[in-house]
Amino acid sequence: MREQILCYAIRYHGEWHAIKQAILRNEEWERCDYDGYYVTIYDKEYPQCFLQLEYPPWILFYAGRLELCSLPSCAVIGSRMPTQRSIHITQQVVKQLADRYVIVSGLAKGIDAGAHTAACNKHTIGVIGCGLDVVYPKENARLYAYMKQSQLILSEYPKGTKPLAYHFPWRNRLIAALSDSIVVIEAKKRSGTLLTVNEALNLSKPIYCIPHAFADPAGYGCNLLISQGANILVDEADIALI
Questions:
Q1: Using CA atoms, how far apart are residues 125 and 191, in angstroms rounded to an integer?
Q2: What pLDDT was estimated at residue 163?
Q3: What is the pTM of this model?
Q4: At what angle do helices 192-202 and 167-178 cross, to 10 degrees?
Q5: Contact 233, 239 (CB under 8 A)
């Protein structure tokens, strides 16, 4: 099945439902050459955390250290256009958490990039919505290169796959599954960050949020989550309890 799933993943550009249909039909396939590392759901090396998902990935393409998936981890996520306050808070939070957890995020600009950068001297995993040879956003090129060598980047999509908009909400379920808990630094009322939170709640993962000022649109999502029962992080003592 390993080579068969690789063939389907390349043929259908990593699209989960198309791969499923190909498997169910036992669609004709042939061996494909692929320049890179990958693991399928049928391999013993497949990260077990993804099996808790309703839609576990059929295949994961990766660069770096796959064994990081088996370590305790915490997602640190938030806005792509964060305030300077939130950038500073990200550094503070990750500085504390990275001694105990692998830091997981989405390798987007903003909070994601800040979280990975702050954790690079420890352990961090980036989950992306395109092929591993596609750097998105371009401003993270140096971070990508470093993480491919010394950390871990994961994707459901084979090389050459473009960063299509709908890939990112779909990949958020992988961030949630990888993480033992989720820390939300900054999120607006309508935010992709909240999609990751919803995935984590479906998996009964604890959510922690940074509080924001009254009526602050940049932090509306965080304050809403706190009002709905998320854990609140007000100082370093709270971070130590995660």
A1: 21
A2: 97
A3: 0.96
A4: 40
A5: yes
